Alpha/beta hydrolase
Amino acid sequence: MTATDTFIYRFVPVENSKRTLLVLHGTGGNEDDLLPVGRMLDPESALLSPRGKVLENGAPRFFRRLREGVFDEEDVIRRANELADFVAGAVKENGLNASQIVAIGYSNGANIASAMMLLRPEILRGAVLLRGQVPLVPEKVPDLAGKSVFLSSGKFDPIVDAENAGQLAEMLKKAGADVTHKLLPSGHELTRVDIDDAREWLSRLA
Ligand code: MLT
C-alpha cells in the first residue's frame, strides 16, 4: 500500500504544469466539489483533491471536532500529518514539483490546510484559506519564511468569527509567512469576490 492509497481522491494532471493546487473541501463535501473552483483559480495548475476521511453524521471532514468551532486537537495533528504524507506520496508518484504545492481550502478544508502549514510546512509553498480559523496552537512555532497565505474571511460569518480569523492571520505572520487577509462583507458562503481576489493573488505567486 502506498501513501496515496490512504485517501479517495481526484488527480487532474495538466501537461507541463508548474504548480499543483491541493484542493480541500468543506464539511459535507467531497473530492469533486471544489475542482471547478481550483480550475477557476488557475487553469494551468494540476489539481489534487482528496476526500476528508472523518465522518460526522455521514458528512466527510478532514478532522474530528467536538462541536462547532471546538476541535479535537489530537485528531487535527494526526490528520494533518496523514494528509501531508498523502501529498508527499502523490508528488512522488506523479513527478510533481514538490516546491510548488499550494493548498486551496474552504472552511474545514482551510482549517486542515493551515494545520498542515503549521505542522508540516515543508509540504506547502502557500495556501488560499477561504473562511479559515485557528485550527490549533502548535507546541513550537514553525518557520514559515518563504510561505505565502491568502486568507479570505466574512465579516458576518456565523461559523468563523472575524476575531478568530484575525488570530490565524497573526499566528501565520508571526511565524514568518507573507499573509494577505481580506475581510469581506459576507457570511460563511463563498462569493465571486473571494474567487476573483484569490485568483489575482495566485497569479502573482511565483
Ligand atoms: C470546522 O469544523 O473545521 C469549521 O467549523 C468549519 C466547518 O467545517 O464548519
